[in-house]
Predict the structure.
Amino acid sequence: MKQNFLLQLHPLTKFYFSLFILVAVLIVPGYIFSFAVFPILVLIAILAGVTKEFLSIVLKALLSVLVIVFIMQMFFYPGDEVLWKAGIFSITQEGLDYGLLLTSRILAIGAVFILFFRMTEVRDFVKSLEDKGLPPMGAYVVLSTLQIIPEMRRQANTIMEAQKTRGVETEGSLFVRAKAFIPTLTPLILSSIASTEERAITLESRAFSAPVKKTSLHQLTKNSADRILPIVYVVILVGLLVWRFFL
Amino acid sequence: MKRNFKDDFNMMAMLLIPIAVAVNLVGFQLANVLRLPIFLDTIGTILVGVIAGPWVALLAGLITNLINAIFNPVYLPYALTSMAIGVGAGLLSKYGFFKKIPKTIVSGIIITFIAVIVSAPITVLVFGGATGNTSSLITATFLASGQQLWSAVFSSTFITEIADKVVSVLIVYFIVQKMSDRYLSKMNYGYLYMKRNNKK
């Protein structure tokens, strides 16, 4: 099966793209550019074949934040040019502009990072950082964290069921529910830290902390696009900076 | 006892980080399931600070927020808050603040101040004052009653954080009390909480 070109890019190329958008959005004044970034990101998501997950996470994560940020600025940002007034609430032109600016930036920056993680396996990203000089221990910590989280969620549910069987109440008044928290969390933490010793022994038995160069089964390749694109980003950013501050 | 910066990052401490991050996330999820009005999403970070020191906790806080940011980028700027909480908890532990309940509560209040001082400017500068959680409603109420933006955000953050952090440090205190000497002896700051030979 032929892999998608965009998905095949080196993780760092995609990461630099996110940073590029972040800086570009902060350089260019006004909200029109930042709002224009979003359709471009959607287009990239369609080309990469991740549209559905991308849009659903944008909706879930960003929509409520954007609405609330916008409403807050519209009503409470100080300004003189009043557009609409009812009682203590008033909408000013300045508030409207600032609300649009802020929401456009949050949308563009938030969406580009969501897109990055939909297009990149965390494993590949961490490997690329390791190639750049992240210590192998750091890479191991990040990856094993991702593995441990679902495992501990399951374990937390098991412990809670077990405690319910013993008679710990999880329904009722606030105080009763709060009391169920500690009997669930304590066994979870104590059993998890007991397992770190086994992990340490396993890692050490493979000479993990030996001061030698590590070999990896997982390799990343760079193609010509991965060499050209970062240069393109830098050129565009320098162009934007010159345009913003010197013209 | 003089301690080298690098000594903090031994293997047992590093292996504690994934656990801490998972405890942060699971704590938050449990608080949701039990419909508690507080987040309890920094228990892991504080725990690492207490037994493994400030720098390991800084890393745990950072990784927690990076992993949360994979699904919700709003968490990304607040990585600074998590890191500051971790460092704060670690330093407090170094000076023996987690040995007895009264001092633990004091350290909870100190950590609240750290959290507020770091997170309120992020809320104002990055999100203009509200991010859509419970404290946004309080902020809006303060603003509508005529307060300035900065003081409104500071006070609403303080109100939502104080209960959360004090309960979190108490939970950490009880969990550390239950840890075995055998495990604590392997952690950098564990000797402070061992039940035997508590002299060093």
Q: What stands out?
A: The first helix of chain A runs from residue 5 to 8. The mean pLDDT of chain A is 88.
